[in-house]
Specification:
19% strand, 3-stranded mixed sheet, 364 residues, alpha/beta
Length: 364
Amino acid sequence: MSETKLPQSSSSSPVCAWNEWDPLEEVIVGTCTGAVVPPWHISLAGAMPSESEAFFKEHGGTPFPQERIDAANRNLAELTSLLESEGVKVRRPKPVEQALPYAAPDWSSPSGVYNAMPRDLMLVIGDEIIETPGAWRSRYFEFKSFRDLLKEYFHAGARWTAAPRPELTDELFVQDYTPPAPGEPMRYVLTEFEPVFDAADFVRCGSDLFCHRSNVTNAAGIEWLRRHLGSEFRIHEIEVEDTMPMHIDSTFMPIAPGKVVINPDRVKKVPDALRHWDILVPPRPTIPDSHPLYMSSKWITMNVLMLDENRVVVEENEEPLIHAFKEWGFTPVPCPFRDFNSFGGSFHCATLDVRRRGTLQSYV
């Protein structure tokens, strides 16, 4: 592993983050206020647990139960307090009404979803915030909740880029899509009609980014980001064994220089670029079957947030994972977050690291 310093953005920028582990200084934490069940569309067939399909078809476009929203918001409040106690500046989005229909020239959506997952919508590379071209029609205007913050960062000196807004017409989706059965060749709900991607399908290791193609990120989306970032960065696409891929941070998570956590069910071959890294295989999640997970698998427990290259925020009930982090030489910082997990994310999803104290380096 080399640590050759590369050109970097000005330290005076309000936005600066090159990896997932430099000391965290400022972060956006989402909110579940006003969260709505995603309205059913074929795009969800490639990413949602099959047992949730009936729930989406029955309740899509209506608010989640208020008691679940309140419980998730309590988790977010505890995370906020924890981060602030560690000296991290926490910013929160302005809740935006999601239970409203809207339309584009070629399609309509009965509602939005939520303002809970800033990691899906924005990718910070150095002093640049990139708005991503998401593939779900119901999330088309989700940026609105974060726009005041983005404008503030822009006026303070950050670069602000928006990837081309997708049309999201029927040509983007395989209309008769069904997920592949185990052993069948992989197939995706997205075509290559236009570039789409979620930021949560990418993780940063300085001048190297790792990603996977998924049912919210197509090959054209990966190529758009590769061309946008230019030759200064390398994007490595990971092969995963997942019939319903959506977001890499519960599959492959670099947590410190030379250390990466991998999902043993999904990653069978570690990229050659990381052949000298320590490969950390987490214990199986302990989320009980009775706990509702509308939009994720139990492996959401892998979705951790690094305060620095030693301290890791982890769900307080995941005792085997907490023990594993200690064995690996990290300092776990437990926080209750299981009620937020029900909405499809965990600590990494619920946050956007706006500023980490560090420089651009090569770690592979």
